[in-house]
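Example 3.2
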Amino acid sequence: MHFTAQQIAALLQGRLEGDPNAKVSGVAKIEEAGENSLSFIANPKYEDFVYTSKASVIIVNETLVLERPVVPTLIRVKDAYSGFAFLLEKYHEMMSGAPKTGIEQPAYISPTAVVAPDAYIGAFSYIGDYVTVASGAKIFPGCFLGNNVTVAEHAVMHAGVKIYNGCRIGKNVVIHAGTVV
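Structure, written as tokens:
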């Protein structure tokens, strides 16, 4: 899938500097980026890469002061790290189709657990006693939530996550596959 710098800038409500038609077909670390790559610089210690990167488009903080010309197209936003994370989230939503809700079977959910009607519990998940899964939360297949776990609104646990007894997972937190908390 290809996107233009102009499309990305519009989505981020960022200020475009350079070629609005620059194409992006993937993401890469700033130091490893090549043609048609999107990257970002949020940490000042990586700012020198803006001059040497082969990325087509780089998301940068609006406060970045350039000392010399750059080849890549820049998209200036308030916070480059948050902007990049937002793009990844939107891309994931686009690729995953309709939002998942409901409880897939087989799954074990304790009778004392409270799961919001618009939450998603994937197959082969275990939801222990007195667990609370809030609105919009997504628990992907094969997850384990021990007793007295609280999962706040729109938190996401990817496949195979293990959350031990008594943990509290905050709003909008994303925990990647195989993580143990």
